[in-house]
Amino acid sequence: MNLKIIGGSSHKGFTQAVCKYLKIKETKTTSLVFSNDNRFVTIDEPVRGDDVFVIQTQVPPVDSHVMELLIIIRALRDASAERVTAVMPYFPYIRSDKKDQPRIAITARLLADMLHTAGASRALIMDMHSPQVQGFFSMPCDHLLAAPEIVKYLKKNWNLKNYCLVAGDAGAAKMLKLYADGLKLPVAIMDKRREKNEEKVTIKGVIGDVNGKKVLLLDDESQTGDTLIKDADYLLQQAGAKSVDACFVHAALGPEADEKLNRSPIKRLITTDTIPLAAHRLKNCEIVSVAKMFAECVRRIHENKSIKSLNDL
After folding, report:
1. Rounded to two decimals, what is the model's pTM?
2. Which entry of 4, 152, 192, 305 is annotated as an active-site residue?
3. 130-175: per-residue pLDDT in tens?
4. What class, spelled out in words, does domain 3-145+292-311 have in CATH?
5. 147-289 carries CATH number 3.40.50.2020
6. Among this protein's residues, is 292 annotated catalytic?
7. Burial letters for 11-31: b for 16+ Cβ neighbours within 10 Å, e otherwise?
8. Most buried of the four, 23, 181, 208, 247, by CB within 10 Å?
9. Are 94 and 129 in contact (CB under 8 A)?
10. Are 245 and 267 in contact (CB under 8 A)?
11. Does 3-145+292-311 match 147-289 in CATH topology?
12. 76, 43 in Cβ contact below 8 A?
């Protein structure tokens, strides 16, 4: 099978970076929307018998990009591609992973089913909000972790003396071990409560000692920045932290997040390029690219080789 890469319209720069690493050209496609708001997609090169990877991440308008991905996958199946892999650096609706209220949909499971129905053979995702989402797929689903690349970047570019790693909540504590092992730093966990589907949280305290230390807050994603800012305020004003920086894998930031974070006491931000940040104006934001990691994973999947070592520190 020949290896082919197709990028949806959500993150063209990421697709180009993957293609550059693999030393191949992106397979040409056409994607447009008619006046009746119906999307039309064509695959403009032969893909019969090929191994095709379609890259699409969550970016507004989310539903439109999801539909584009599904149509591309269906078009590839109808064009007799041998295998189609949906590459989603940030999986849409990933936070809708459980039935925690009456009469709601577990939308992450629905999207996994839709990808399979459209014709995807497998999926590739980075840092799921809940690892159990991997079990929603009735096809192989590979899960990449950004930790190895971020740890490597921090070791090379930051002076980590007197730092303490702090998980934003109990859920983020699951990812804390990888960073702690890689950076050999002490850890702590924010103890807080979130009510139902509201984005507001109440901080109850900090499990661990951060007094007099520089803190690096860790989380898998940030949407409004409010949680990070509340954590930073608490750590500085009540827990005795010397300073606060923040690291999150997915910059799923809304339109008001930039101003909030720029005015916050958080000194430095570090994130990845799973979501394009060109439209944002964040001060002191450092971006760690994971495009090469995805490209290497794509190469190994294509060659039927193990990807386990990619997640090792």
Report:
1. 0.93
2. 192
3. 888 999 999 999 999 999 999 999 999 999 999 999 998 777 777 8
4. alpha beta
5. yes
6. no
7. beebbbbbbebbeeebbebeb
8. 247
9. yes
10. yes
11. yes
12. yes
